[in-house]
Specification:
By secondary structure, the chain is mainly α. It is built from one helix and no strands. It is 91% helix and 0% strand. The chain starts with a helix and ends in a 5-residue tail after the last helix.
């Protein structure tokens, strides 16, 4: 019976360690997702700004 308790205790400790690893990786993925979202917003804004500048430039060329 003592061996069974020891095995259960060891298994519980290993499970806790794995849960901590999973949480750490999940936190890292959440942070990466946040950063990717920020980069998408920045890129989208820059592309829109360039498009608008090109449109205004083409419009000021007298119909070219």
């Amino acid at each position: 019976m003592e061996a069974l308790r020891k095995n259960v205790s060891e298994a519980s400790a290993q499970l806790e360690g794995l849960q901590q690893q999973v949480q750490t990786r999940a936190d890292a993925l959440t942070e990466l997702d946040r950063q990717m979202s920020y980069l998408r917003q920045q890129t989208s804004g820059q592309l829109l700004e360039r498009y608008q500048q090109n449109y205004r430039f083409a419009g000021s060329e007298g119909g070219l």
